[in-house]
Specification:
By secondary structure, the protein is mainly β. It is built from no helices and eleven strands. It has strands at residues 4-7, 10-13, 21-24, 32-39, 46-51, 58-60, 68-73, 78-83, 92-100, 108-109, 113-118. Strands 2, 4, 5, 6, 9, 10 and 11 form a seven-stranded mixed sheet that branches. The protein has a four-stranded antiparallel sheet with strand order 1-3-8-7, with no helix packed on it. It is globular, with a radius of gyration of 13 Å.
């Protein structure tokens, strides 16, 4: 089973960019679909983007489509979330999640990384 560690969050100004990354331990990361979620204070966790095991297909929530891009490098066991044109409402804890064999039934979560966007 893989373990996930996110990094790359931080404090930025509106309009800036960030690229959090999520590194997976273990040798089978290429068999996991990957996702990015976020959770703002007082709100439910929200799925932002998902990518298939080999990166051939991706899904985006309407709130981030056109601004965020999910990608992965299986050789580095890493998934990225390129975030452009950040807004204050993007402020949240961002979580990486991996689905073994593409199924969410046994989803694995990272610990999260804080992203704060100031005006």
């Amino acid at each position: 089973q893989v373990q996930l560690v996110e990094s790359g969050g931080g404090l930025v100004q509106a309009g800036d960019s960030l690229r959090p990354s999520c590194v997976a331990s273990g040798r089978t990361f290429s068999s996991y679909a990957a996702n990015w979620f976020r959770q703002a204070p007082g709100k439910e966790r929200e799925l932002l983007a998902a990518i298939t095991t080999q990166g051939g297909s991706a899904y985006y929530a309407g709130s981030v489509k056109g601004r965020f891009t999910i990608s992965r490098d299986n050789a580095k066991s890493t998934v990225y979330l390129q975030m452009n044109s950040l807004k204050p409402e993007d402020t949240a804890v961002y979580y990486c999640a991996a689905d073994p064999g593409g199924s969410s039934r046994y989803r694995i979560w990272g610990q999260g990384t804080q992203v704060t966007v100031s005006i």
